[in-house]
Write a structure and sequence with these properties.
- The chain is built from 9 helices and 13 strands.
- By secondary structure, the chain is α/β, with parallel strands linked by helices.
- It has a single domain (7-263), classed as Class I glutamine amidotransferase (GATase) domain (Rossmann fold, 3-Layer(aba) Sandwich), CATH 3.40.50.
- The strands form 3 sheets. It has a 9-stranded mixed β-sheet, sandwiched between helices. Strands 2-3 form a two-stranded antiparallel ribbon. A two-stranded antiparallel ribbon has the order 7-10.
- A hairpin with a 4-residue loop joins β2 (13-15) and β3.
- α2 (47-54) packs antiparallel against α9.
Length: 274
């Protein structure tokens, strides 16, 4: 019998001018190349909807974004160089992260995904690296986007070091924000030469959570380290999927309760527009 491919949810992004959900092609292509089925998650910030969607997934990828996490979510006022803020995206990603924490679903977070993960765990962000982080190197490289532009130091024994098979790696860089204070249950495992955190991992044994500040989805066709990141993520998703039959009855009951709640609330209160 043909092995079932892991289902990987990827949250979408929103173009405010046209009110369209969208997602860069590279995330889904990288997931498919590593053996997974990409499932796009619209930005619908309703807890019952997100719970129902996540119950059918084997892994989640939180992608980058052309906007910033609302600093009010980590207790800060907006910096003059703060980028656009999209409430629908923040709210949906945070609901997804809440479900992941409950279910233990494998997570790969990229760029903005790393930042919103850190905020969800009580961490804070540098709102603009160039103006707030003295001695910073250039973290917004521009085109070509797949060109490795700086080196990161990798923590010995970490997942990223094992996948790179080295103590450092060359990566691309497309961000103007970064981690200021680490959130709970997160360990820094990679740093750029200026000391900025470039990767975090969850040290708990019962889950796989890996987040990187660079964009492996862009370079996976040519870069072995990028492919290794996606291969490991899909391997963890398969392992998670293999464990699910033990909980089929519980998951079925949960989905049934969620569906009943949805059908009983036709007014669909609670969603917000950005």
């Amino acid at each position: 019998m043909k092995e079932r491919r892991p289902r990987i949810g990827i949250t979408m992004r929103i173009e405010l001018e046209t009110e369209r959900f969208y997602l860069s092609r590279y995330y889904s292509e990288a997931v498919e190349a590593a053996g997974g089925d990409a499932v796009h998650i619209p930005l619908i910030p309703r807890a019952d909807y997100i719970s129902s969607v996540l119950a059918g997934l084997d892994g989640v990828l939180l992608p980058g974004s052309d906007s910033d996490v609302d600093p009010l979510r980590y207790g800060r006022e907006p910096h003059p160089r703060l980028g656009a803020v999209h409430p629908l995206r923040d709210e949906t990603d945070l609901l997804v992260l809440g479900e992941i924490e409950e279910l233990g679903t494998p997570l790969l977070a990229i760029c903005f995904g790393l930042q919103v993960l850190n905020v969800s765990r009580g961490g804070t962000l540098i709102q603009d690296i160039a103006s707030e982080f003295p001695g910073a190197i250039k973290h917004e490289q521009g085109a070509p986007r797949d060109r490795p532009s700086h080196r990161v130091r990798l923590l010995e024994g970490s997942t990223v070091a094992q996948l790179a098979q080295d103590s450092s790696a060359l990566v691309n860089s497309h961000h103007h924000q970064g981690i200021e204070r680490l959130g709970r249950e997160l360990a820094a495992t990679a740093w750029s030469s200026d000391g900025l955190v470039e990767a975090v991992e969850d040290p708990r044994d019962d889950r796989f959570v890996l987040a990187v500040q660079w964009h492996p989805e862009i370079g996976w066709e040519k870069d072995e380290f990028s492919r290794a990141l996606f291969d490991r993520f899909l391997s963890e998703a398969r392992r998670f999927a293999d464990r699910q039959p033990e909980h089929d009855e519980e998951l079925t009951a949960r989905i049934s309760r969620t569906r009943s709640a949805v059908y009983q609330k036709p007014d669909r209160e609670g969603g917000q527009e950005s």
